[in-house]
Design goal:
Blueprint (H helix, E strand, L loop, with lengths): L4 H6 L7 E4 L3 E5 L9 E5 L11 H11 L2
Antiparallel strand pairs: 1-2, 2-3
């Protein structure tokens, strides 16, 4: 998506502190952390909401949360 901030981070058009990356997800440190180590896990494929993601992509996304 052209105007999506997170898609631009995934495409590495915008710098971010990447802490994890695999084929399905990218995890970055939040720029306004609520606590030490606050991270954001992003799916590599754009979806307006998590409810609109294909079911087969949810498992790998949640697995990335616990690596």
């Amino acid at each position: 998506m052209n105007d999506c901030l997170f898609c631009k981070i995934i495409a590495k058009e915008i710098p971010a502190s990447i802490i994890y990356e695999d084929a399905a997800a990218l995890a970055i440190l939040d720029i306004h952390p609520k606590s030490l180590g606050h991270a954001v896990v992003l799916p590599k494929r754009h979806a307006p909401t998590i409810l609109e993601m294909p079911e087969e992509e949810l498992g790998p996304l949640f697995t990335a949360c616990f690596v």
